[in-house]
Amino acid sequence: MSEADLHFWFDPVCPFAWMTSKWVRTVAAQRDYSIDWRFISLRLLNAHLDYDAHFPPEYDAGHTAGLRLLRVAARARAEHGRDAVAALYAALGAQVFETEPGASVPTRLERGADLLEPALAQAGLPLELAGALEDTSWDGEIQAETDAALALTGKDVGTPILHFEPPHGVAFFGPVISRLPSDGDAVELWDHVIALARFAGFAELKRSLRELPQLPALGVRPDEVGVQEDWHGGSRRQQR
Q1: Beta bridge mates, 164
Q2: Is residue 1 part of a domain?
Q3: Beta partners for 194?
Q4: What does the pLDDT read at residue 233?
Q5: What is the extent of the structural domain holding 102?
Q6: What is the tally of helices (H) and strands (E) in the chain?
Q7: Is residue 90 part of a domain?
Q8: Could you check whether the bond before residue 101 is cis, i.e. omega within 30 degrees of 0?
Q9: Within a domain: 239
Q10: Do the domain assignments include residue 199?
Q11: Tens-place pLDDT, residues 7-49
């Protein structure tokens, strides 16, 4: 496989990864970039933490749902190639984030037909891939891919992780964005980010205050500004 222009690590339940992926796809369409979509599990990333002590109550089930969906994506890649991951992530993101607020992702996963089945159909993939949801044999592959991302960035990160101009370019956590740029602004933002990535020795430009992303599932329309919250340690942790 020829090297892609960008490696993008995602967890399908992360709204910021989804928003960044929409921006990246917008740029890729205009610049003819190729993207290799890779797996990073927030559940595995935080396996060493006590969820009850560190996170809001819904995080454990949400991160576990992300891991279950990544198992499906891993099987899709193994059986149908890397392009299947791009299609499946796009379809999952549409199901999870581009719908009106309703039941949680874990609840919708249990219903099957309410989330995963339409996503697989939209991606042109067989419904039998849903059998990987509970198949922990995929976890080793997902852990290895998560570890590969952390080896490039360090461990105090979240999702998404972008590796620019691999294999020799630099990788960063982010950029984390809450608003989707216009086509023109998307390219301009990309050029600025690439300029930072190409500057030898650049490591971090960060603020932990974030707006809730402009996503229908979060109740924020494109013409609205989401509520600002403090996300320290890459999430709404209750303690460091």
Answers
A1: 6
A2: no
A3: none
A4: 53
A5: 6-234
A6: 9, 6
A7: yes
A8: no
A9: no
A10: yes
A11: 999 999 999 999 999 999 999 999 989 999 999 999 999 988 8
